[in-house]
């Protein structure tokens, strides 16, 4: 396997007290849920001023995945991709979110561009972002039941008639 495609899970260094690994040429930091906001604030100070993406992942069928020591696998994970323009470097954060309490603080106050990303993650996975200015659905109708990107969401159980569709 070439070095550029190698996937490592050995902790290489701590980033603001959190374990990090190198994966496919990019640093990945595993952040505890209770340190999420403080680590992101510190990374903004370090120059990671752009949040490129924020999304959720449902690991319902992959509970045995490999994570660094001290990180407990949960059903959900929030993945945040940050960018430092000055350093020309990307950084990925991975935060484990338990199914029993799918809540994280919002990053909106210091990364306003996460507004739509957090709403989409809420809409599709049911992960709530506390402190978000408008934590409502963004893709699905407001009265929609469930979260379509969850692995246990029943597909095709509800017939949907879209506007303008031919019957």
UniProtKB/TrEMBL annotation:
Keywords: Transport. Residues 30-155 form the NADH:ubiquinone oxidoreductase 30kDa subunit domain. The keyword Phosphoprotein does not apply. GO terms for molecular function: NADH dehydrogenase (ubiquinone) activity; oxidoreductase activity, acting on NAD(P)H. Pfam families: Complex1_30kDa (PF00329). Belongs to the complex I 30 kDa subunit family. This is Unannotated protein.
């Amino acid at each position: 396997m070439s070095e550029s495609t190698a996937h490592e899970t050995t902790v290489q260094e701590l980033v603001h007290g959190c374990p990090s690994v190198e994966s496919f040429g990019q640093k990945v930091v595993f952040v505890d849920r209770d340190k999420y906001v403080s680590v992101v604030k510190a990374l903004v100070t370090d120059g990671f001023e752009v949040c490129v993406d924020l999304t959720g992942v449902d690991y319902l069928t992959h509970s045995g995945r490999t994570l660094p020591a001290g990180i407990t696998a949960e059903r959900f994970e929030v993945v945040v991709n940050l960018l430092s323009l000055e350093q020309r470097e990307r950084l990925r954060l991975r935060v484990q979110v338990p199914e029993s309490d799918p809540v994280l603080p919002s990053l909106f106050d210091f990364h306003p561009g996460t507004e739509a990303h957090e709403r989409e993650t809420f809409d599709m996975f049911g992960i709530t972002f506390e402190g978000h200015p408008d934590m409502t659905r963004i893709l699905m109708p407001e009265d929609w039941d469930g979260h379509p990107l969850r692995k246990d969401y029943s597909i095709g159980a509800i017939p949907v008639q879209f506007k303008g569709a031919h019957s």
